[in-house]
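G., the chain you wanted modeled:
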Amino acid sequence: MKKLHRPIYAATAIAMAMTLAGCGSAEGSSDPTGGSGMDAPQLDPGAFPTTAQPESGPVADETEGRKVEGIRMAQYVSLPAEIDASLVEQNFVTALDGTDTSLTEAMYISDDGARAVAEKGLVAGYTTSGNVTTMIPDPDGGPEIVNPDMRTVSHGVFRFTDAAAATAGAQAMHAAMLEPYEPVGPGEIGQISVMPNSLVVHRSEEEFGVLKDTLQAITVHGNYVISTQADAPAEHAEWNAKAVANALAVQEPLIDQFEPTPLDKIDELPADPTGLLRYTIPEPEDTKYPQPDVMVLGARGYEHESAGSTNNIEELAEANFVAAALDRTTVMRTASNDDAKTLAALTLDEYKTDGYTVTDSPAGLPEVPCYLSEEVSGDYIECVLTRGPFVAIASSQNDATEAHQLAAAQYMILGDAR
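Predicted structure as tokens:
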């Protein structure tokens, strides 16, 4: 089970595929903990905080509340790997706060197009994307090459104020997707025989020297709009229709389970309903590697933000996973101390499978394993620790000392976690 921290670097889809692996091997302890081997005088947290943050309380305003609502929706948005098992690499994700700016970031449409959609009554949303293995062995024995059979799915669910607003929003989204948006050219109205009620956009373009076929379907489902875009080489264009149709079949029953926050209560949502975020280490404002949105997630939501595997959801259930909080460090809560050890062991098993290398443990925490991944964009050091029912991941790019200090500080914070 690959349980990765969120990326601490920005990259294109191909660069992400080359670097997201980012962790170490399980040749070290199979019971990562700061327990019996902990040497308190040796702990070095550096300048990082060693006590929990204040309780967060309610959101600051309606915009923040809509972002939290979008994060809540992540638990009910299908993973790319649930749409098609070949989509093994998780890509970009976005929680929408209902503004046109957030929509522009989530979908490749113009500012004017995004504004037209948002004005129809967009409340919140969550988008995800995934692709097949990007880099494959060179048949001639050279360095890895870009997979010529590259296939990608971008998928999202958007909540509107009511069904009429969702219908108007879908029409505006369809119109925006038909318009050119540099470097993407104009689309054309398409059809999918098994989806007669969907608005469809089709286009063909060259990408990395390969003629690509793109199909996007926009479907109204009650107060929601479900949008799925599939891309494949032109000779495999039939895959796009199958992927888009399957996305709708998987997504509709999922979003039906979501309990939306009443519109007049969104500005009263708790910023952290689990109380878990306060035990993470926050990102400093002047950081070199800004994190994505701070958030608290359930199992499927966490998979969107990490490995994106359907198998991982089953393994999270096996470890009685409760929630994950993501900031500068990642903290996961399980149901018991033994469950935390199970979750950490599953993590280490995946690291061992992937063949990453063990590196030094933090001073004072000899039983906490750390891993080194040497990537194109730099070295990534990650340390995994458990304390009580919690599992935490502390990581740094090109700075082992920082990773060790984060791990020490995180260990100290979890001493008071409940």
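DSSP finds eleven helices and 17 strands in the chain.

Shout if anything looks off.
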